[in-house]
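Could you show me just one protein sequence together with its fold in token form as a worked example?
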Amino acid sequence: MNKNSDSEKIRTFIAIPLPPSVTGELKKLLAQMKSFSKGIKWVNPESIHLTLKFLGNLSAGELSKVFTGMQNIFQDPPSGFRLTAAELGAFPSLKKPRVFWVGVSGSGMETLIQLQKLIEDEMYRQGFPREERKFSPHLTLSRIKFADRLTELTQAFSSYNFPAVEFMVSEILIMRSELRPEGAVYSIQQKFALSLG
């Protein structure tokens, strides 16, 4: 058997978990959008997170480098910070949506961007390619393959009154993603606590 086959690799990313206060509001939003399901893959609200770095399918050796890199960063843990989940949007735009998302803002945005750059730089030192796209923090809600009620859906989504929810970021996770027919299933590989002192 080929030990380097993709089936034996671990689909890995680094992310910020969300507290119940945010997840609860995401559940309400997605419940309102549930009637629009044809051609649209809505994410399980319990699985929604803020991705900092997607690493792809990794071998055990590559995953070990991710752990090493994160341990390097957290020898002197970065400070925790506050974010706000608020604005609704879409990529590439609400006129031609392919992905619906909830935006992230707040007093900790500069710290978030610095932390993401720390992770990006350290993963590069560990041998992983840099992300070519500029970091755009968001919470992915759905991916649209096609939608026969797209105009109606976009109007319903953009007019939804999503309340601003502030939350504390206190840890960073290395996550495993298993792609299944019912959707991606996530499990935590390792946790790293931010400094709250």
Helices lie at 20-33, 60-73, 109-125, 150-159. The chain has four helices and nine strands. Strands lie at 10-16, 40-42, 50-58, 81-92, 97-105, 138-144, 165-169, 171-180, 183-193. The chain has one domain: 10-193.
